[in-house]
Amino acid sequence: MSTDKPLPFIYQFAAGAVAGVSEILMMYPLDVVKTRVQLQQGKGLGDEGYNGMVDCFRKIIKNEGFSRLYRGITAPILMEAPKRSRISELSWPILATDAAFRATKFAANDEWGKVYRNLFGAAKMDQKLSVLTGASAGATEAFVVVPFELIKIRLQDRASAGKYNGMIDCVVKTVKAEGPLALYNGLESTLWRHILWNAGYFGCIFQVRELMPKANGKGEQMRNDLLAGATGGTVGTILNTPMDVVKSRIQNSPKIAGSVPKYNWAWPSVGIVMKEEGFSALYKGFLPKVLRLGPGGGILLVVFTAVMDFFKKQRGDT
Questions:
Q1: What pLDDT is attached to residue 58?
Q2: Phi/psi zone of residue 52: left (φ > 0), alpha (ψ -120 to 50 degrees), beta?
Q3: 223: which residues sit within 8 A by CB, 6+ positions away?
Q4: What share of the chain is helix, strand, coil (3-state, %, to 5)?
Q5: Cα–chain-centroid distance for residue 65?
Q6: pLDDT of residue 190
Q7: CA 311, 316, 318: angle at the middle one, nearest 5?
Q8: Residue 282: pLDDT band by 50, 70, 90 thresholds?
Q9: Can you give the pLDDT at residue 189?
Q10: Closest-CA residue to 231 (of 289, 283, 298)
């Protein structure tokens, strides 16, 4: 999020992608744990169930090995990059999803900011515009990432571990069994998830920056960005976790001809989860999610700002 003259879209997109990859490399195991806990229905019992984040970490490491925490990202990169100088196929859905998330998030937010400032005749951003542009960026982001997110969820699910041999195999089997539109299963819930998170994230960033003393130097600017981003990430996570829970279940439910999936539309699915498992089930996976996206939101903003400053320096805009 630049406070100066914005750079062209391609620079914003690239900076968001760098920020996204940086964040996912640091925080990815928490995403695996979050997904496992969210896909679990009812109470976690025995070796097959999870009683929270720590128990999930422990059982994954004990039953499947430590590297399972990095399935689809770090382990394949570390193993394949030296041998083939390329990212393993299993890495692509994770890297593509998160790079697309973050790249689209920041670029779309800046572009929507221009649109709304012109529309409302505002000289600069305020709190209401920040929330509105964040929500619009979230909707834009959702359309981009749904297919990647669906493949990621199915690869992360333990029950699907032996079913798919990577991203391409997962795409082919999903399309063959359920049709090409199946790749957009969960679009509605993904829209709600991203609208809520981005509105909270960018709205909080604006407010926290306004409340904090003006930064003198890069060190203080980094501190302000880290605090603003972490606050925004935490608030966004509180707002959108229920939609994240039902989105995971919707996308992990294969479509079978002649039958209606148990989890189909977002709000009815929220009602099903509440009725069968209680309100607290809507916040399954909250702890690993907020531990990832709270600090992760700060990392995103710090890296994005640093990369944008680098681009400006290279262009001579500073």
A1: 87
A2: left
A3: 215
A4: 80, 0, 20
A5: 25
A6: 92
A7: 80
A8: very high
A9: 93
A10: 298
SS3 per-residue string spanning 233-277: HHHHHHHHHHHHHHHHHHHCCCCCCCCCCCCCCHHHHHHHHHHHH
Q: Name the 3-class secondary structure at 5.
A: coil
Torsion angle of the four alpha carbons 17, 18, 21, 23, in this order, in degrees rounded to the nearest 10: -110
Which tokens hold the place of 94? Answer: 């994770």
DSSP string, 113-126: HHHHHHHHT-SS--
The whole-angstrom separation of Cα 318 and Cα 313 is 6
Q: Is 89 exposed, middle or buried (0-12, 13-18, 19+ CB in 10 A)?
A: middle
Nearest Cα neighbor of 195 from 135, 244, 105 is 135
Contacting residues for 220 by C-beta, under 8 A, at least 6 apart? none
Closest CA to 245 of 228, 214, 266: 266
DSSP secondary structure string for all residues of 214-240: PP-SHHHHHHHHHHHHHHHHHHHHHHH
Q: State the pTM of this model.
A: 0.73
Sequence letter at residue 173: K
Residues 201/136, Cβ–Cβ less than 8 Å: no
Helix or strand holding residue 65 (H, E): none
DSSP 6: P
Task: Count the Cβ atoms, other than its own, within 10 Å of residue 283.
Answer: 17
Q: Which whole-number Å values give the CA distances from 311 to 108, 172, 218, in the listed order?
A: 18, 39, 16
For residue 80, count CB atoms less than 10 angstroms from its CB and return exposed for 0-12, middle for 13-18, buried for 19 or more: middle
For residues 172-184, give the mean pLDDT.
90
**Which residue type does 30 have?**
L
User: pLDDT digit string (tens) for 95-105?
Assistant: 555 666 667 78
